[in-house]
Amino acid sequence: MEIIFVLIFISLFLAIGFLIAFLWSLKNGQFEDGESPAMRMLFEKKNKKQGI
């Protein structure tokens, strides 16, 4: 029975750690511009010197 309490404690500790990491990345601007890298791939200019 005590192993259930240990597993609950470990899972809560991991969940809180992931929440803190997510909030930290949100605060530092990790998710500010999610659209332009995908658009940049579509409209990238090809280099004529490569012959591709």
List keywords for this structure.
about 50 residues; mainly alpha
Describe the structure.
By secondary structure, the protein is mostly helical. 63% of the residues lie in helices and 0% in strands. The chain is built from 2 helices and no strands. The chain is elongated and about 70 Å long.
Sequence of secondary-structure elements: HH
Helical residue percent band: 55-70%
If you compute it from the alpha carbons, what radius of gyration comes out, rounded to the nearest whole angstrom? 22 Å
What is the makeup of the main sheet?
none
Q: Spans of 5+ residues with little confidence (pLDDT < 50)?
A: none
Structure summarized in a few sentences:
The protein has 52 residues and is mainly alpha-helical. The protein has helices at residues 2-27, 36-42. The protein has two helices and no strands.
Helix and strand topology:
Layout: H1 2-27, H2 36-42
